[in-house]
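User: Can you recover a sequence for this backbone? Please restate the input before giving your answer.

Assistant: Of course. Working from this structure:
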């Protein structure tokens, strides 16, 4: 009977290790440098530092992997017209879904779509007197893409990705018609919990 329990115990450890090799989950945090493209009558100005925090899951399949993420992202950028300069800031819920290829045991390349939901945002004129608040409608999902490289070191994941837009982020802020498509470079670190 002891041998049966020992075999079951060792099998359980082996299955746990196998599950950890196939599926991993953990937190992810990082910084980004983003800017906005704007509609006719405006031109882009300075980029802005932002941050993101959330969770990821990775499903390892032989030489490829799938990595969905859920991230709270703070980002923005500046733009101007002939009269004023404006600073914009957005809070979004981002859901990227990456498909990656492993290059050995450490390096990765990845790409995939991202769906974003605008939680809130504002535009402030550089004189500090004008603040336009954005209240998103319930169907304000936008879509884009991400592509980049990654490194796995033990339980730590390092990712460097570029994000570009496929659909418009905000059509209008107050009386300012805009096409604020977000471009950003993102550097993030994640930790496999299991």
């Amino acid at each position: 009977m002891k041998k049966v329990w020992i075999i079951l115990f060792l099998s359980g450890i082996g299955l746990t290790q196998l599950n950890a090799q196939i599926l991993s989950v953990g937190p992810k945090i990082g910084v980004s440098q983003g800017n906005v493209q704007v509609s006719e009558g405006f031109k882009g100005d300075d980029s802005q530092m932002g941050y993101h925090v959330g969770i990821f899951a990775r499903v390892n399949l032989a030489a490829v992997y799938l990595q969905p993420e859920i991230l709270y992202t703070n980002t923005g950028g500046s733009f101007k017209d002939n009269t004023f300069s404006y600073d914009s800031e957005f809070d979004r819920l981002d859901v990227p879904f990456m498909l990656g290829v492993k290059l050995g045991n450490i390096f990765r390349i990845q790409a995939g779509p991202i769906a974003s939901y605008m939680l809130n945002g504002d535009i402030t004129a550089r004189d500090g007197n004008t603040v336009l608040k954005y209240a998103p409608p319930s169907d304000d999902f936008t879509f884009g893409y991400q592509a980049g490289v990654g490194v796995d070191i033990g339980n730590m994941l390092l990712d460097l990705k570029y994000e570009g837009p496929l659909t418009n982020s905000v059509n209008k802020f107050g009386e300012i018609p805009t096409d604020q498509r977000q471009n950003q470079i993102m550097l993030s670190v994640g930790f496999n919990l299991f």
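That completes the design. The chain is about 10% helix and 70% strand.
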